[in-house]
Amino acid sequence: MPATRKNTAKRPSAVARAAADLPAAYGALLRDFGAYLRVECGLSPHTIEAYGRDLLYVFQSAQAAGLDSLDAITPRTLVEHVQSLKAARGMTGESVIRQIASIRVFWRWARTTLRTVEDPTSVLLRPTRWRRLPDALTPGQLRDLLNAPVSHDLYKGSTPLRLRDAALLELMYASGLRATECCTVGLKDFLRELGVVRVIGKGDKQRLVPMGDPAQRAIETWLAQGRPTLATFRDKGRLFVSARGLPLTRIAIWQIVRRNAAAAGLPEIHPHQLRHSFATHLVMGGADLRIVQELLGHADISTTQIYTHVDKARLRSVHRKHHPRA
């Protein structure tokens, strides 16, 4: 009996499946914009899917209003769409901010590529007006989190996993890396002689970030005593690998952070809070904002300026606490 061949065809994404119900013009725009984000911007599949989902909601709103082409979408259409996001879809303020950003990027691309001459996004509020201050951990909380792999028995005697997680957490805080960046850092990117790590960030932009002595020592210990035990021919030369010798995923990193936070008695923590803490503590320590922007890999200084608000909030708190006329 002949062996059956496994179907290896890639399943369409959730956005692509939903786009099948849209007018043809909208479906074509979603495909073309996705190709632009992938080929010209070099964005990750996860980010491209997020952009596609945001625009899918816009086109679904337009379709519900009887609009079947891009030129039919007016400023009022977009305003009503944004106003409905919280009520109809239960989105948080942060999600609405991302929606507005996605809408702006899309229409800028549509105008540049002559798919439309109109810009209905000009009436939308700037996302920075709604920006929520990031959640940063205190130095004490970070100390407990970074010590968790050593202080708590989470690994059932597995020294390699303990060393991996200790090195990963140290690097995330010391260098402010995104979870996706930690997934893709390779062995060749750990430049121990210079004391820096090479990072490929959003848009395939490369930056060199100092890692500090504690993180460097933790990584060197992991490389000497942990990684050789787990590494396989499938590790793709990545710095951090799973128990099966595969490159770590974003979900795995999220689980590592959550597991160690719970062991340290901390509330639920997500990986991006380590990045927020990195930037917040630099600004509070007097670091120049342009330097912080470079270390974080932000294309626009306005993205980094949120951390100046964090510092001002701390100063107001200290003033209220200690000044007799506060």
Characterization of this structure:
The protein is mainly alpha-helical. The chain folds into two domains: 15-125, DNA polymerase, domain 1, CATH 1.10.150; 139-319, hpI Integrase, Chain A, CATH 1.10.443. It is 58% helix and 4% strand. It has 15 helices and three strands. It has helices at residues 14-19, 24-39, 45-64, 75-89, 93-112, 139-151, 159-175, 179-184, 212-225, 227-230, 250-263, 271-284, 289-296, 301-304, 306-322, and strands at 190-191, 196-200, 206-210. The chain has a three-stranded antiparallel beta sheet with strand order 1-2-3. A hairpin with a 5-residue loop joins strand 2 and strand 3. Helix 6 (139-151) runs antiparallel to helix 7 (159-175) and helix 12 crosses helix 15. It is globular and about 60 Å long. The termini are far apart.
Question: Can you lay out the helices and strands and say which pair or pack?
Answer:
Blueprint: H1 14-19, H2 24-39, H3 45-64, H4 75-89, H5 93-112, H6 139-151, H7 159-175, H8 179-184, E1 190-191, E2 196-200, E3 206-210, H9 212-225, H10 227-230, H11 250-263, H12 271-284, H13 289-296, H14 301-304, H15 306-322
Antiparallel strand pairs: 1-2, 2-3
Helix pairs in contact: 2-3, 3-5, 6-7, 6-11, 7-9, 7-12, 12-15
